[in-house]
Amino acid sequence: MEFARVALMPFVLPRGIAARRLFDCRNAGLTSFLLRTIRCDIMTDMTSRRKTLKRDWFDNQPGAWVMVMLPAVAGFFIGGPNLDTLWLLATWAVCYCVQFSAAHWFKAHFSRRYLPPMLTYAVALIVIGLPFLITHTGILRWAPLYIVLVALSMLSSWLRKERSLWGNAVSVIAASAMATVIASFGSTVETACVMPINAAHASCAAADVTAARTAIRNMPDLSQIFDLHAWWPAGSLPVSGLIATVLFALTQYGSVLVVKTMIRERGKCSYVAASWVWHVALLLLAAVPSGRSPYLIAMTVLLLARAVALPVVTRRTTLKPVVTGITEAFASFIAFGCIIAAI
C-alpha cells in the first residue's frame, strides 16, 4: 500500500521529481519506513515550490535590464535632463519590475508563489507613478500602445512563448519606444518644435515653447477629443527620440537573433543566416544614405563582426550563456554610445 501511494505521485508532482523518486524506490528495494520518509520528502518539495523564493524578486536575466533601460536613459539625455525625465526613468524601472514578476505569475498560471513580488512592485509603481500621472496626464496618449504590448507580453508568458521571436519583438518595441516617450518630456527647447504641424510651428523661433510644453504635459479637453493635433501636439513626437527608438529597436532585435544562434537555436543555419542578413541590412542602412553618420557606420560594423564571429567560434567550442550575456551587454553599450553620439 505504501508503494502504491508513492506510485500515485506522478499525477500530482512535477514529472522530474516523481520519476526520480520512483526510480530510487523500485531499484533500491526500500522498506515501508523508507517509502514513508520519501513520501514526506516529496510533499516537502511540493510545499517549497509554493513558497516565494529570493530569486523570484529579481529578474534572472541581467542582460535584460541593460536592454530595457538603455533606450530610456537615451531618451533622458536626448530630451534634456529635468525632473520629469528623471521621474519617468525611475517609473519605467519599477514598471519593468512589475512586468517581469507578472510574467512569472502568468507563466506559472497564477501560482501564489509569484504574487508577493508582483503585488509589492505594483504598489511601488502606484506610489511612484500615480503622482506623475495626475500632474502629467499627457502620458496617457501612450497608454493604447502599452496596453497592447502588455497584453501580448502576458499572453506570451501564459503560452510560455516569451522567448519566441514575436515575444522578443514585443519586449524590444516596449523598451525602444521609451526613448521617444521620455525625450518628449525633456527640457531641451528643440523637442517642443521639431515636429511642425502648420506654418505657425514651422520654426522654434515662432513657436510658443511654454504653451507647447503645457500641451505635451496635459491631455486635450473634451472639445478637442477628436482633434489629432491636440492629442499629438508639437514636440510630443520629437524626431531625435523617434530616430533613437528605431535604432534601438533594430539593434536590439539583432541582439535577440545573435543570442538565439548562441543558445536556444545553436547550430541552426536558418537563424545564423537570419542574424547575418539582419546585420548586413543594418550596415547598409547606416552606410548608404547621403547624411550617413560615422558613429552609426562604426556601430553596425562592430555589431556585424560579433554576429559573424560568435557562431563561427562556437562551432568548435561551447560558450557559457553568461559569456554570451556579457558579450551582448557590451554590444548594447556600444550601440547606446554610438546612437547618442549620432543624434
UniProtKB/TrEMBL annotation:
Positions of transmembrane segments: 63-80, 86-106, 118-136, 142-159, 166-186, 237-259, 271-289, 295-314, 321-342
Keyword Transmembrane attached: yes
Domain of life: Bacteria
Keyword Transport: no
Swiss-Prot/TrEMBL keywords: Membrane, Transmembrane, Transmembrane helix
Name used for this protein in its record: YwiC-like protein
Organism: Bifidobacterium longum (strain NCC 2705)
